[in-house]
Every structure is written in C-alpha cells, then in structure tokens.
Specification:
The chain has 440 residues and is of the alpha+beta class. It has 12 helices and 15 strands. 27% of the residues lie in helices and 16% in strands.
C-alpha cells in the first residue's frame, strides 16, 4: 500500500538508497531536501503569475474527473478512475491559464515541492534555448569547445544539437530495473547509492567524472535514443557557456521571469554538481505555470496588457514542427511503440493525441506535464508509481489527459489523416502500449 504518513511513524527509515522505492517514495518525493543535498532555485522578487479560477458559468467548470476514458486494456472508465489507480500525488488542470481542477494527496500541498525526475530535462532545455537566443551558446558548436574535459570521451565530435535531441552516438543504457545499467552506475558515481549504511557515499566520484567515462558506439546524429547522460552534458555545457551554476541559470532565465510562486530546489551530487537530468523539485502549480509558458509560445503577461518573452518562441515552434528526419529516427527507436507517430526535440517529447499533437515533459514514477495547443489545456500530474516505468499507467494517463483536453476544448477527436504537421507518408497510428526507453 502507498505510504500515507511520515515514514518515521511507520518505522521506516528513508535514505539516499531507498528514496525512490515503494512505499517510502510517496513521502520522499514530497521531502527530497530532507534526504538528499539540494540547491535553492529562487523565484526572485517579481510578481507571481496569477492562476484565476475558471468561471462557474463557463464551460470549463465541467468536472474533468467524470470524463469517460477507454483505458489501455480496453475497459471503460473515467479520468478520476485513472488518477485514483495510478498512485497520483497531485494534479492540476488549466485551460487558457485558468485553474479548472486541482487536488493533492494526504502528504502534498499547493506550496510543497515534489520530485520532477526527468521533467527537469525540459526546463534545462529551456535554459539552453535562452542562452542560444542570447548568443552565449551555439547549438552547432562541438561540446568539447565548451567542456574540454570530454575530449577523450565518446562525446568528442558531438554537437550541442546532438545532445539537445538525444542523438549523440554515446553508449548509455537506461534500464532502471537492471542494477548494472549505466543509469545505476551514474547514481553510484553521484554517491547516492554507494554507502551501504543508506547515506551518501564517503567518496563520491561525481556526475561530471562519470560523463567522461562514456564511450561512443554509433555515429553522432544517426539515431535517437533517450539517455539521461545527454541532459547532464547539456547542463554542463550551459554552465560553461554562461559562467554560472545551473541553479542560478534556472532561477534567472526561467523560474523568476515566468512568475513562479515558490522557490524550486535542485539536487546535486556529493561534489556539488547539479543533477541536470532529473534533479528539479517544484510545486504542481508552478509546473502548471511552466506548461502554460510552453503553451503560450514562451511568453507571459507583462502586467500592462502585453506580453514578455521568457523562452524564444522560435525554440518552441521548432519543437512542434516534426519533419521526416525526426520521425525516421524516432520510428526506429525503442520509444516508437509507446508514442506511435511521435518525435523528440529540444528536450521535449511530442505525440499525436486524440485532440491533436501534444507536448510532453515526462519523468519516471509518473511525473508529467501535458500541453495541448488545440484544446488550450495544461495538465500536471505528480505520482509515486511503485516502479520507475509502468507502460499501462503511462498510456492510461495520456488517454485521460487527452480526454480532459477534448471535453474542455469542445473538440472532436482528430481522425486519421487529420493531424496537423503530419509528414506525408509517415504512419502515426496508435499502437500497443509500451514504455519509452528510459523515461526518467
């Protein structure tokens, strides 16, 4: 059963070794700073972006939880059923920037941060976007021009664009259930799993030291393969290009200007290096604000009737604009069965949904930001799945949020052949549910 109280009350110790394991993960994901070392990501001193409640007389007052969903196994249910059955810790639904629905489990609250896991990647990707827009970073430059420490690694010859789109040729296995996988070796180098007593290791070798050990086994750019190491390299490159640590970059470039209400926190390794691939923790409302920022093309209201740019709109347009190259490499990847017709660009997932193409920020154990341009909806879900990956939970959640967008947006499901941006001749039919490779 999920843990609904402080684990100390249950006689269970939460440590750096078990914080992602059930049942303690339900508590630990809300209390990461009590278990692991973190930095503060300041929201600054500017105004908070308002999330006004949807009008009671408006159609958006429809209860999204009652929306019908056909689940992955073919059974009928509702959005509420899906959320109840998938270890939901919190959810928030916006339409056009207005708060339609919000809920927190017994351990959560609107002002409490929750582990985002690899949703962090999308926020770090937006940091890279701002640096590129400012001319401090060039996506076509080789990584080693910014981080010469990687010159002897598999990243030699790879460009910033390669890691943005997870298309380097570096070997990295992201099998969470395999203790020998590279993703688990990464944890050991960070120091989170190296001390048998359950604490941080006495002599962590560090995240950046680990990245330098990776080797290439394919040409750069030839494939798409989801790997957390790509985002860690990207974060390192951003820090070098800007001359600032990631916590400061996140605060100054994204968190404060988007109008976050609360500080976020960012995990770091035993040597003080930020965990770029999955270390961010934030409130559900602030992640809804981030999703709204993406939905609105990278701009926020300026308080005077206009808008202020945070993320370059061209960055988001580029992400949404699927082409034959993106589809070809994605179709050949292990992620295609989970997201048939999808693509990956700029640290975002994209998939065709029941009401049009959807941008996704995803993390293991069920973290999700679901952005639908056609229905103007943002859906945020925090979870504490017992497993890092669960293909049925993932598929059911995607269907649930597609359904929420459809009923709020008063849209009929997109029929075959009617998906905007479809490259002619490429199949985008839904297939059987399967986990994307290493979503973290």
């Amino acid at each position: 059963m999920p843990l609904e109280r402080d684990p100390e009350v249950e006689g269970i110790s939460v440590t750096a070794r078990n914080w992602q394991d059930p049942p303690v993960n339900r508590w630990a994901f809300w209390h990461v700073a009590d278990v692991l070392p973190t930095y503060r990501v300041s929201r600054g001193h500017g105004p908070v972006r308002a999330l006004p409640a949807a009008s009671l007389t408006d159609h958006r007052s429809i209860d999204p939880l009652a929306t019908a969903v056909t689940r992955a196994d073919g059974s009928a249910g509702t959005v509420g059923d899906v959320l109840a059955d998938t270890y939901t810790d919190a959810y928030v639904v916006l339409q056009d920037g207005e708060l339609v629905a919000e809920w927190y489990g017994a351990l959560g609250a609107p002002d409490r941060t929750h582990a985002l896991m690899s949703v962090s990647k999308s926020v770090v990707g937006c940091v890279a976007a701002v640096l590129i827009d400012r001319g401090q970073l060039d996506a076509d430059d080789e990584i080693t021009g910014y981080v010469p420490e990687l010159a002897a690694s598999g990243y030699a010859g790879a460009t910033v664009r390669h890691v943005l789109d997870m298309r380097s040729g570096v070997a990295f296995s992201e099998e969470y259930a395999n203790p020998q996988a590279d993703i688990r070796r990464l944890d050991e180098w960070i120091g989170w799993r190296s001390d048998e007593s359950g604490g941080l290791g006495d002599d962590p070798r560090g995240l950046y030291g680990f990245l330098a050990t990776l080797r290439a086994h394919a040409p750069h750019g030839a494939r798409f393969l989801y790997r957390s190491a790509e985002s860690d390299v990207l974060g390192w490159v951003c820090e070098r290009a800007a001359g600032q640590p990631m916590a400061q970059l996140l605060s100054e470039l994204i968190w404060a200007p988007m109008g976050a209400e609360h500080d976020a926190i960012l995990l770091h390794d035993g040597l003080g290096v930020a965990v770029h691939d999955g270390g961010l923790c934030a409130t559900a409302r602030d992640m809804a604000r981030f999703g709204q920022l993406l939905l609105d093309g990278g701009v926020v209201p300026d308080g005077a009737g206009g808008v202020r740019r945070v993320v370059p709109p061209a960055w988001l347009r580029q992400g949404w604009a699927v082409d034959s190259d993106l589809r070809t490499v994605f179709a050949a990847s292990p992620a295609e069965p989970a997201f048939p017709g999808g693509w990956y660009r700029n640290q975002f997932w994209f998939r065709p949904g029941e009401a049009g193409d959807v941008l996704l920020c995803l993390g293991i154990h069920g973290q999700m930001v679901h952005v639908s341009r056609r229905t103007r909806t943002v859906c945020v879900k925090f979870s504490s799945w017992p497993q890092a990956q669960n293909p049925v939970y993932l598929e059911d959640t995607l269907r649930a949020f597609d359904a929420v967008g459809g009923v709020l947006g008063r849209r009929d499901p997109v029929r075959s052949g009617g998906v905007p941006g479809l490259v002619s001749g490429l199949s985008r039919h839904r297939g059987p549910a399967a986990p994307p490779a290493g979503v973290i």
